Amino acid sequence: MIDPETSPSDTSSRRPAADLLEMLATGGMLRVPRAIRACDAEALVVCLEESPPPLHPFSPAFEAQSVGQILDHVRDLRVYFDAVPQYRDWLDRVGAGRLEATVIETLESLAGGASLRVPEHPVHGRYGFSTLRRLPTGGLIPPHCETEQFEGPQYAHLRGLMRDGGDVLSWFVMLQCPEAGGELCQWEVGRDSDQARALYADRMRAGEILAGSDFVCSNFEVGELVVFAGGRRFHEVRPVEGPIPRWTLGGFVFPARSGELLAFC
Ligand SMILES: O=C(O)CCC(=O)C(=O)O
User: Fold this and answer.
1) Cα(170) to centroid of ligand 1, in Å?
2) Predicted local distance difference test score (pLDDT) of residue 89
3) Amino acid 143: pLDDT
4) Which pTM does this prediction carry?
């Protein structure tokens, strides 16, 4: 499925000047066009839409679904860890088994060759690296900051691995763009600000709380890998307009106490 053109040896020539960890510190965004081939992304979306694997809702409050379980959305760790091999098998079955390795190699290249590893939970086994996310018509992801999720009990093990400060990067690969909408918007609102505390207290007031703050919205091309400081700054995905669902493959990366980069989804 993956062309030699997109193999890791090629990523250095397309490597943006900024480094992954520097970006983490400054709260910016890295974009790698053609991290995977557009035709591979399209082939995967055809499989997803024609014979969909089980889709899990993000929340009853808004339209967004995932293939594979997102750690933030489960309370029972067995549900999360049981889904990991099922998801991997499904990717293999549809010929997309190399996709995760390609993203790992590209992220390592962005981090100046640092190694990136998916950790093992001491009881349940290996974490997942990615999930597939589907936003249908009207689908959105409301303003959030990834470090919020680490409060949950299901993160006890990962919290112990994190470098002090608990920073995390979000990454995704655009697989299918909607006709309109679906932009990723990043707010100039940090995770420890007064606005953040107001948001944590009442999500329903997000529009009012964020009104007047600066934000930047971006659209992406199919096959593009996007990495941003999702743990540091509030961000959202705007409602999808039109009949074409927005599909992405995504997950999270964080610097560990050990000095390594660790990943989970
Ligand atoms: O577009 C996506 O897949 C999700 C973006 C996002 O909100 C995140 O990764 O934190």
Assistant:
1) 7
2) 96
3) 93
4) 0.91
Q: Is the CB of 65 under 6 A from ligand 1?
A: no
Query: What value does the mean pLDDT take over residues 134-161?
Result: 93
Residue 212, sorted as left (phi over 0), alpha (psi -120 to 50) or beta, turns out to be left
Neighbours of 18 (CB within 10 A): 14
Q: Computed from CA positions of residues 7, 135, 220, 178, in that sequence, does the dihedral angle turn out positive or negative?
A: positive
The number of beta carbons lying within 10 Å of the beta carbon of residue 78 is 10
61-105 pLDDT, tens digit per residue, is 899 999 999 999 998 999 999 999 999 999 999 999 999 999 999
Q: Which of 227, 220, 224 is nearest to 254 (CA)?
A: 227
For 18-256, give the CATH class: mainly beta
Our answer on whether the CB atom of 248 is closer than 6 Å to any ligand 1 atom is: yes
> Ligand 1 centroid to 250 CA: how many Å?
7
Is residue 128 within 8 A of residue 34, CB to CB? The reply is no
8 A C-beta contact, residue 30 and residue 15:
no
- If you measure from the C-alpha of residue 164 to the centroid of ligand 1, how many angstroms do you get, rounded to a whole number? 24
Residues 6+ apart with CB under 8 A from 198: 205, 209
Query: What does the longest C-alpha to C-alpha distance in the chain come to?
Result: 49
176 C-beta closer than 6 A to ligand 1:
no
